[in-house]
Design goal:
The protein is an all-alpha fold. It contains 1 helix and no strands. The protein is rod-shaped, with a radius of gyration of 25 Å.
């Protein structure tokens, strides 16, 4: 039976690529959520600023 060469760099690279995929998937969820929250907070701040300006 013949020995098969297994490159040692494959294992660390597989961990790096698996975590990169995990990071990208998390970012795909996080960015729309942050954009939705940020636009809502900007709209609320804008309404509050107009209300304060009308009172003055």
């Amino acid at each position: 039976m013949k020995k098969i060469y297994f490159p040692r760099a494959v294992l660390p690279l597989s961990v790096v690529f698996a975590n990169l995929i995990n990071y990208c998937l998390g970012l795909c969820v996080l960015l729309p959520a942050l954009l939705a929250l940020f636009t809502v907070s900007i709209a609320a701040f804008d309404r509050l600023q107009r209300a304060v300006a009308e009172e003055i």
